[in-house]
Structure formats: C-alpha cells, structure tokens
Design brief:
single chain; mainly alpha; 74% helix
Length: 192
C-alpha cells in the first residue's frame, strides 16, 4: 500500500503538526508513535531522528500549544486596550475563542498533566506553562494596582482553567461570558 500523501513542509513540521492534531484529540497516551508515523507520512527513522523519545515529541507538542494558547491570551489582553485592569478581563476573550473551536477538548496542559507521572519532564513542562502564565497575570495585576497581585493572578488563572474545563463539559458558549464577568468582578474588587 502506498504511503499517504503528506502536506508540504519539512518532515519535522509534518510530524509535529500530526502529533498536535492527534495528541489534542486523544491525549498523548492515547496515540502511539506508529499512528503519528503513518498519519504524517514519514519513515520511523525520520521520526526518531527528530524526536528520539516519545516524550521529546510530547514536549514539542506542548511547546506548540504554549505558543498558540499563551499567544492568544496576550493578544486578547492587548486587544482590550492599554489599561492593565482591562487587559486582565480582556484575556478572557481568548477563552471564548478556544471554547467555540470545532474539536475543542479543553486545556492541553491539564489534559497532558493528568496523563503524565509527576516528576517527569512532560509533567514538569505542564507545571512550567501554568507558572509562566500566572507570573504574566501577576505582573498585569501589579501594573493595574491590585492590592494583592499574586492572589488576583491565582484567582484569575483558576477561573481560566475552570472555564477551559467547563467548555469541554457542556460546550455552552455562555460559559466564557460568565467567566469574563466573574473576572471583571474580581479585578474591580482587587483594584479598590
């Protein structure tokens, strides 16, 4: 049987794009390397040349998710205007966009962390992502003049994570709006 036609681009990109699609839909543990090889149309040796271990591929997948999700959060915050308080609320527009996407399966980091043993590189990468996002939100909260920027950041990131999870459970587009309104209440209370 001939190999399936593959999209243009480097073999590494094809592997990573395929892994991104499959891992997000089924979780890294639910997808074998042979499936990634078959669907990306590369030879096994090519996959292992770029990603010697499956964990290397999962880490590259998480890096790609990080770029997309954190990029969306920052863009939504910027689009909300110049005021850090408005940006803290505006970042929730990224949640609305994520939850409305076809094939939405929640937070790739939370999903991957649930599948990964604590102490491993993959689990550590999921924790690192959440820590970096919270640090960014903390800095926005500090610039906005929050009385306790760390607490506000923790509250808002918990609200984001809850919104990401809730989007999977009921798929109701009103959820993101409710999260945004809750964020406004938290931000307003923290800036008094």
């Amino acid at each position: 049987m001939p190999a399936p036609r593959t999209p243009a681009g480097s073999a590494r990109d094809r592997i990573l794009d395929t892994a991104f699609r499959l891992f997000y839909a089924h979780g890294p543990r639910g997808v074998g390397v042979d499936t990634v090889i078959a669907e990306s149309g590369v030879a096994k040796a090519t996959l292992y040349k770029h990603f010697p271990r499956k964990d290397d591929l999962v880490l590259a997948y998480l890096d790609k998710v990080d770029q997309a999700w954190f990029g969306a959060l920052r863009a939504a915050a910027r689009d909300a205007g110049d005021q850090p308080g408005d940006q803290l609320v505006g970042m929730f527009d990224a949640l609305a966009g994520a939850c409305r996407r076809d094939g939405y399966h929640g937070c790739a980091f939370i999903n991957t962390a649930a599948e990964s043993p604590a102490g491993g590189a993959v689990h550590a990468r999921t924790v690192e992502h959440k820590t970096v996002v919270r640090a960014w939100v903390t800095e926005l909260a500090r610039r906005a003049g929050a009385t306790d920027p760390e607490l506000l950041a923790r509250q808002l990131t918990l609200l984001l994570d809850g919104g990401l999870a809730g989007g999977v459970l009921d798929g109701d587009p009103v959820l993101a709006d409710a999260a945004r309104r809750s964020a406004r209440t938290l931000v307003d209370a923290a800036l008094r």
